[in-house]
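Agenda item 2: NAP complex prediction
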Amino acid sequence: MKLAGNTVLVTGGASGIGLALAERFLKAGSTVIVCGRREDKLKEARQKHPGLHTRVCDVAQEAERLTLAEWATKEFPGLNVLVNNAGIQRRVNLVDEQEAWGKTQQEIAINLEAPIHLCSLFVPHLREQPTAAIVNVTSGLAFTPAVFAPVYCATKAALHSFTMSLRYLLSKTSVEVVEIVPPAVNTALGGTGLHTFGAPLDEFADSVMGRMDSGELEVGFGTSEVRRNASREENDAFFQEMNSRWA
Ligand SMILES: NC(=O)c1ccc[n+]([C@@H]2O[C@H](COP(=O)([O-])OP(=O)(O)OC[C@H]3O[C@@H](n4cnc5c(N)ncnc54)[C@H](OP(=O)(O)O)[C@@H]3O)[C@@H](O)[C@H]2O)c1
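Presented output:
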């Protein structure tokens, strides 16, 4: 997909990876709308990039997803790219800790239910555009789960699977389906300071956006590129190595 000349909606686009992608779409000459739950973060992003359009929306809520789709397609009839980026990561020991089901449910709603529902809400509109794309942000942990975040990894593996099916189903239409597979990237994911060991955000975003612009449909970076291309045997070895200290 080309980065220029689009009208793009990025969920969770006021900070982190979403904002980095939004900034690059803007710089390439696309119109960009970002949504998120925190008004102050949206305002900050708008102040930094006066051309940015913003909308408060909690994608975990079905009613808010419906309103978002209705508003975005009405206000931006040329909208042709949906980036399902919003996500949370909870580190939880499901075996030894009891926790309210609502927390697990919210993680599944944000990371999996929302992108699937938004795809289904936007596909009819996207199909009417001469060129269009859906970009789903999964994770290297979709390919090799980390046991400290079991629900997160399951949602990302499921989103990877859904993305493959959707790409196949839309292959004869104007809608390309792209998957960005980030490795650990230095953002606030899971809470401030948990991902400082990750890849620098700008380096990661420049690389994946460049490869998307060249037409690649599944794009990783660093370790996630390795995981994405690994054999089952190699992934089993990565799994043991990554998780041995949690047993
Ligand atoms: N950073 C990594 O190491 C890494 C690795 C692999 C995959 N990823 C994936 O990359 C995506 C972006 O993560 P990030 O690293 O940029 O994390 P981040 O810095 O925590 O940003 C997440 C963004 O999503 C928004 N968001 C969260 N819940 C939302 C909701 N219910 N409705 C609307 N927006 C919501 C947040 O804004 P509000 O809180 O204001 O809503 C925030 O702008 C996620 O899907 C994540 O799983 C990240």
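Discussion summary: The first strand starts at residue 7 and ends at 11.
Owner for follow-up: CH.
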